[in-house]
Amino acid sequence: MNMKIGIASDHRGYLLKEELITFLQESYDIVDYGTKNEDAVDYPDYAIKLGEAIQKKEVQYGIAICGSGIGISIACNKVQGVRAAKVDTKDEVIATRCDNDANIICLSAKMDLETAKELVITFLTTPFSNEERHRRRIQKISDYERNC
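Structure (tokenized):
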């Protein structure tokens, strides 16, 4: 069975989202949480849809895109259980998967397609280190979320 990946964007990230879907659907099951065109929308609406899909385990990982990648990452991280990371480099992707067990990668719509492809594939293929110190830190975040 193919890994199920959720993807979402605002209007600024729409074109990159569509290009990534075309690229990824050869190897992964992709669930598109919108937006469906370049009409202006509010990124939190789509970030929350994607975050809730992660929370409900409808998808294993997520990709979120907005103009800068920052706003959508903030919104994704408001959903309990989501660990979304805005990344720009392969080293950042490896670190957030290995150390933080991030489940959503957030990208800037300004990123070129080849870089975005490289970062997404690195994200989807880099395992969590499962080291005790990283499990402990993630657990502290989860404990805090439950107590809020």
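The two ends are 36 Å apart (CA to CA). The chain has one domain: 4-147.
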